[in-house]
Write a structure and sequence with these properties.
Elements lengths: L1 H16 L11 E5 L10 E7 L2 E9 L2 E4 L2 H5 L10 E5 L9 E11 L5 E11 L5 E2 L3 E2 L1
Antiparallel strand pairs: 1-2, 2-3, 3-4, 5-6, 6-7, 7-8, 7-9
């Protein structure tokens, strides 16, 4: 009988501990700096939020700094600063060539239990103006 109780407890512990849910820690600010990269140079991002509202985002690449306007910052609302990832690609010359992407993502909870992931991307081409995509499903 003791073995049976022991086995029950042993196998039920992982199920009980799996019930605990982790929460993401929100970021108020971030300062990111990359090593020197060919073509792009040093990438830096300086961003801050206050109660989830973006106050500042300055991205530097290709030897230029890009400061987002208040209207551009407003488009990032709902996308956590902690979701930021940086990528780059060779790009196409007619579209501005080599491009740095700042990607923010979020989970949108719909009706019932259905959730979807969305992303918004700030693209900084070497030879073209900065663009911000509309939120898109991932």
């Amino acid at each position: 009988m003791n073995r049976l109780v022991f086995l029950f407890l042993l196998f039920s512990l992982p199920m009980m501990s799996a019930a605990s849910e982790e929460e993401v820690v929100p970021w108020r600010s971030a300062l990111i700096k990359s090593p020197e990269l060919p073509i792009i140079g040093v990438i830096s991002v300086d961003a801050s939020t206050d109660d989830g509202t973006y106050q500042k985002l300055i991205a530097s690449a290709f030897g230029r700094a890009h400061t987002l306007t208040a209207a551009e910052l407003k488009r990032l609302e709902g996308f956590p600063l902690s979701s930021l990832t940086l990528t780059h690609e060779a790009g196409y010359a007619p579209l501005g060539g080599h491009t740095l992407h700042l990607k923010f993502s979020r989970t949108v909870h719909g009706e019932g239990k259905k959730s979807t992931r969305e992303a918004i991307v700030i693209s900084i081409p070497k030879e073209a103006p900065l663009t911000i995509s509309a939120p898109k499903p991932q």
